[in-house]
Structures are given as C-alpha cells and as structure tokens.
Amino acid sequence: MADFFLQALAQVGTPSVLLLILVGVLFGIIGGSIPGFTVTMAILVVFPFTFAMDPVSGVSLMVGVFVGGYSGGIVSGVMLGIPGTPSSITTVYDGYPMAQRGEPGRALGIGVAASFIGTLISVAVLVYFGPLLASFSMNFRPWEITALIIFALTLVAGLSHGALLKGLLAAALGLLITTVGYDRNSNLRFDFGFDTLGAGFEMLPVMIGIFAFSQLMGNLEKLRDDPQSARGADTNVAIPYRLILRDMAGQKLNTLRSSLIGSLIGALPGTGGTVANFVSYDQAKKFSRHPERFGTGIPDGIIASEASNSAVAGGAFVPTLALGIPGDLPMAIMMGVLILHGITPGPLMFEQNPVLVGAIYASLMIGAVVMVLCQLLLVRWFAKISLIPQQVLVPVVLMLCAIGSYALNNNLFDVWVLFGFGILGYLLWKAAVPLTPLILGVVLGNNLERQLFRALELDSSWLTFLTRPLSALFLALAVASVIFSLYQNRKIQRLQADGAPSRNA
C-alpha cells in the first residue's frame, strides 16, 4: 500500500494538481456559502472542466470541491441563519445564536476546526475499510451485484422523507431513462424517431438538468414568495484562535463520535450529510450533561454538526470505490467523473488503478489542510459572498451549466437535453417527488442492466438470485427496506392524525 500511495502523492504533489485542489476547495467553499447553491450544485458546475484533464487531475479537482463544499455551508448558517447546504442545517441551531450574541468568529472557527478533524478521521476510515470491503466484494458475481443495486435503490427511495411511493417511482423513472438508445446487444430501443437518441442520453446533461436547473428555479420561486429572505449580515469577522483551541480541547469525545457517525452514515447508500447532520446532533444532545443548552449557541452543537457532515466525505467514498454504489448524490457525480475517464469503480479498482485510489486519499488530506487555511484566512470574503442575490447567481450558473453540457460532445442537442430534463426536474420538485432516487437510477441503470443480463446469460433461471446466499440477502434487505418505510409512513400519518384535533382546538 505504501508504494502506490507514495506514487499517488508524487502525482498529487505537483504544482498543477495542488493548484487544482486549491481552486476546487475555494469554489466548493463559495458554493457552500451561498444559500441554496449546495455542494451538489458546485460539483455539477465544475464537472465539465474535468473532461480535458487526466484522471488524477480531474478527480483531485472534484475532491477539492467536495471537501470545500461541505465546510462552506457553515458561513451562511452562522452569518445569516440560513444553511448554505442541507448538510449544515443543524449548524444553524447553535452557530447563528452564537453569532447573534457577538461571536461570529468563534462560531466559524469552531466549525472549520471540526470540519478539518472530521475529514481526517473519515480519510482514515476510507483507507482502512475501503480495501477490506473491496476484498470482500471480489466474491460478488453478477447476481450479487444486481441484487445490491436493487437494494441501494430501494434504500434511497425509502429515505425519501415519507414519500416512499414517489421515491420508488423516481428510481424507476431514472432506470427508464437509461433504456433510451441501443442496448448491450445493439438493439435499438426508444429513440422516438430521433437519430441523436441512438446513443442514449449523456449522463452529465441529465444530472445537471434534473438537479441543478430545478434547484435554481426553486430558489427563484422561494425568493419571489419571500423577498425578505435576502437579508444582510455584518461581515466584520475576527477569529479568536486561542478560545477555539480551548473549545475543541474540551470536545474530544464529541468530535470523535460525530466524525465516526458521519463516516458510517456516509458509507450507507443514499444517506449523506443531511442524515449524518441530524443523527450526530441528536446523539451529542443525548450524551451531553446539559442538553437544555443546545440551540442557545454552544460549541457542542456546532462541532457535532460540522464534524459529521465533513466526515461524510471519506465515508461516502467507501461504497463508491469498493462496490461501484454511490454513497450519496455528490458521490454519484464523482462516479460519473471516473466513468467518463474510462475508470469503472468497483472491487477491481483497487487492483487495476491503485495510484488513482491513492490520489483520492492524498487529495482528501491535502484538501482538508487547504480548506482550513482558506476558511481562516478568507472568512470575511466568504461571508460577503454569501450575500450574492439569487437574481444574479441563477443566470450565471445556468450559463455555466449550458456551456459544460455543450463542451461534452460539442453538441447543441446536449444543451436541449439539459433544459428538457431541467423542466422535468422542476415539475417533479413541484410535485414533491424526491430527485435523489431519480438521479441514482440514471447513474446505476446501465450497470444494473449489464449485470442482470450477464447473470441471465450465465444461468437463465431467475431462481438463482434466491439460491445464492448473498444475492438472496440483498433482495431480502430490499424488501425489508420497503416494508420498514411503509411502517414508518403509517406511524407518521397516525401521529399526525392524533395531533390534528389539538392543533385545531
């Protein structure tokens, strides 16, 4: 392991790649600092710029955005009381009150320090558990991989905030989108009379359209309904370094626990920073001697939130690299970067591309150091960036998205695909249909089809999926996931019904 890591460090340590990591971290922090922009949006905007790069440079740039984006959400959360990303929601609970009583620099400094430690702990989790999982999954055959993908899709759909049926339908729609064009046996399907659809839809315009376009339109709609949401803030920030060191020294257990929670949840398909955020905050409150102080502006809550959402970074890479199953939406895009560079994530990646795996390790560590330096040195400017009006931001981002989609193949059709799926994503968003299962369906669809057909070519009997222990286990977990989600939905509806009379009284 040491040999390939040193080779990777030599490649990542070149001035050009270090500059790319710096640019990625800066852009990620900026994206995370702007309310509503999100980490995913920042990654989607940068994605097209990796086409002309070699794999190590492209992945290093994306890792930089990934690390910076998860830490950037703290800026607007502390300064405005508005989470820059969904994974920073609980940061607002204690960060904003601390800033309101005149300590914004302390709140930002604690958050940055917790993000740094959380990222480093998650890298350790990735280094130790990624190869172990890859080694175990080497025994997976097409039946097991097919069942695993089905389980991942049902798990994501089951986490769709009470909308199980909508989540499952969204995942099915994502799979359906991948059936456009020729199949693996060169049979033409669903071209709708357009020759350009023979090759199917490109992943990048579809993902940008479904998520970024709909998100931007949603932001404009919210701004129209609530013009007062674009409020100002005092951006005069000073960082009290000694006080922050004392705060962190008294929160060792909270930092470690929250980082491990973030790493573990990040490794589960379809969860990500938002889930880790709430779980670690809840656990910090339960383990605290003074739970009543949470929400009043204490370091405990900020550390729990920021350490966990940053630790998601390393954890999410574990299933992505070892199994080819994205841990969350940003990881689905990261997987798209690897695929476009001709690299297939999965068990063989650790054997066939060890230097690239090592480059990811090195980029995460270097990105964490760069993130701390950038946040502490430039925090005043990032606070100002968080005030950019959506009326200015939306057209600029849409223009960059369109340029990136066109640059993919120098094909204007891809731009129309972007806007077409953007309208679809916006309509689904209006209908409260979760978009994450849809995008993961698009990312995993081709692999699911390939593995399913390969399994049936080796053995035409569908019963083989049930007679092989691991594939049967994954299918059973998929069914259990759906049943558990139905149970949760019914329980929530029953509680809401029981509470209805008291609210109306």
From TrEMBL:
Keywords from UniProt, A to Z, are: Membrane, Transmembrane, Transmembrane helix
List where the protein spans the membrane. 20-47, 59-82, 107-133, 145-177, 197-214, 329-350, 356-379, 391-409, 415-444, 465-487
Q: Name one Pfam family in it.
A: TctA
Any keyword DNA repair?
no
User: Which ranges carry the DUF112 domain?
Assistant: 18-440
Cross-referenced InterPro entries, in alphabetical order?
A: DUF112_TM
Q: Which PANTHER family match?
A: TRICARBOXYLIC TRANSPORT PROTEIN (PTHR35342:SF5)
The name this protein goes by in its record: Putative tricarboxylic transport membrane protein
Q: Which organism is it from?
A: Halomonas ventosae
